[in-house]
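SEQUENCE-TO-STRUCTURE ENTRY
===========================
What this section holds: a protein sequence and its matching fold, both as plain text.
Tokens: labelled as protein backbone structure tokens, with as many entries as the chain has residues.
Question of interest: how does this chain fold, as expressed in backbone structure tokens?
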Amino acid sequence: MTQSSDAAPARSDVRGPGFPEFVCLIACLMALNALAIDSMLPALPMIGDALGVVRENDRQWIVTAYLLGFGVAQVIYGPLADRFGRKPILMLGVGLYVLFSVLAAFAPTFDLLILARIGTGLGAASLRVLAVSIVRDRYEGRRMARVMSLSFLVFLGVPIVAPSLGAAVLTVAPWPWIFGVLALAGSAVMVWAGLRLPETLHPQDRLPVQPARIIGAFRQALTNRQSIGYTLAMTAITGALFGFINSSQQIFEHVFHAADLFPLVFAGIAGGIAAGTVLNATFVERLGSRLIAHTALIAFTLVAAAHTAWSAAGLETLVTFALFQGLTMFCFGFIAGNMGSMAMEPMGHIAGTASSAQGFVSTTFGSLLGFAIGQQFAGSATPMAGGIAVCGVIAIGFTLWAERGRLFKARNAAPAPRAA
């Protein structure tokens, strides 16, 4: 796709909610994922105590199990959405999200809770795949990047309030009710989408579920230099984010002895992502995805490296931790939506399958990378900060590869071929 297509408008032949409602609906679909990750962070010690978790770092499996289910299942939803349409597959996925959230609330053992969390992730995978595919059905180029950035803003508002929401639930009810809130939120969004979201995939664009075609589409998504390059860069950045999420509650509890402040400070740090996303949505159509994302990625890595040195020198305080992480996440807000959009640019002809392939790689391997970072926690913030810096360096390497060593400006590229 060439740069000239960046300002392409929405497809006029796809009816549905207006732009503001469409952005809000897509954002809420995406936000269910963030809610399932962050709302139970304040409850991790309680869940561990109630279910007999002996090794403290093992509590991180409550987050990682969900992410693994979320990542792996994305390879299923894309081909199904390309064959049967976006809406019925979305309804199926949200239904699984609700069902397994209820099962998690009643899990009598830690092992069964982990299985329920995997199941919740399996359902939530549809949210990531279908949200991106539905947006790609209607928009492309910089317009798509703007929709994704605005949706990402609402989506990232959830991490700001989710730990506080979890903490509020714990003041009036036991920890299983946090999973009950997930079920209620999923049910509400499912009703909204069922009533207001039309089918965005035209019948003539539906592709049969043929193994050869699916393998060919996955091959295109995973061998196209721009697509896989940005997907791997996002995998590293996603690993950095999950490393922070896995480590953050323990850092507040054991390093700063300020567990009560965790929801408030976490909200401030997550607010950095929201601020970056707002600014990105404002400037992306004017400056372009590459200039913004590449600059932010370099800044992300430098800030994380400075945080690592500061922490290793024994200078870390709660204030400096919040400032460094807030600035790192501010940079993240300029990266995620743009890189996702650039990875999808050459994949419009196989949007559902490409979204599945990209999501599978970035989430599955990003969650494992984030888990590896979290498992290094041993009483300081240095391993987490260092892991984030390393992830930034890896992401820069893959970005350079994707752009053949040229940053900040788009290359003219021939359009991708139509799927067979």
About this structure: Confidence is low (pLDDT under 50) at residues 1-10, 412-420. The longest helix spans residues 141-172. The radius of gyration is 20 Å. The chain has 15 helices and no strands.
